From TrEMBL:
The keyword Transmembrane helix applies. It comes from Thiothrix fructosivorans. It holds the Pfam family AtpR. This is Uncharacterized protein. Keywords: Membrane, Transmembrane, Transmembrane helix. InterPro entries: AtpR-like. The chain crosses the membrane at residues 7-25, 37-59, 66-85. It comes from the Bacteria.
Length: 94
């Protein structure tokens, strides 16, 4: 049972890394671009399309595999949020 959920968990982490890493990159590049709307809309469509396709292919209509993928996706979000935080936000000493 656990062996069957390892691949979906890792796939969810990879998709989460792609989605939120792409979001982080888009915000950094799009904020200085001459046409930021194009960056943000294009990135959103690409990130969402790849993520949904990955969930569809790997999830294979099995709720346990989909749940493992969501867990990996959320875990990747937590990791990337901590990684991408600025040093001022992390070291907020009273």
């Amino acid at each position: 049972m656990i062996e069957n959920l390892t691949l979906p968990l890792l796939a969810g982490m990879a998709l989460g890394g792609f989605f939120f890493g792409g979001l982080w990159w888009t915000v950094r590049k799009g904020s200085t671009a001459p046409n930021p709307a194009l960056w943000f809309i294009g990135s959103f469509i690409l990130r969402t399309g790849v993520t949904l396709a990955g969930f569809y292919v790997v999830g294979a209509s099995d709720w346990q595999r989909l749940l493992a993928m969501v867990a990996g996706f959320v875990f990747a979000r937590i990791l990337l949020t901590r990684f991408a935080a600025s040093p001022q936000e992390v070291n907020h000493a009273p």
